[in-house]
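Explain this protein:
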Amino acid sequence: MTLRVLLVDDSEQFLQAAGASLGRNGMEIAGTAANSETALQQVDSVRPDVVLVDVGLGEESGFDLVVELVDAFPYLAQRVLLISTREQDDYGELVDASPAAGFILKSELSASAIHELLSAGGS
């Protein structure tokens, strides 16, 4: 089954590069968003299978967005993944305390990394 992915990041360059890379590796990019408001609208309209959320969304928090997404769209529990250029340890307990299914360094983002985390989450 092809996973439909929503990418949420405030960098247009990253959205394009990650979308192209994941698309080449069998994932369908259902949409992109640069902020929380657009991400919530996109999830409502495209109903992605998985949402990748950058920890830092400009002035917004990716951690807050993950909570909003899971609260508003319960089907996304264990289907939202945090991404960042910084190591997971840099965020202390914030990653573990979030309802995200996991964390992927942007430099290690791949279709297989996404599948691995979703499988580990019991989905």
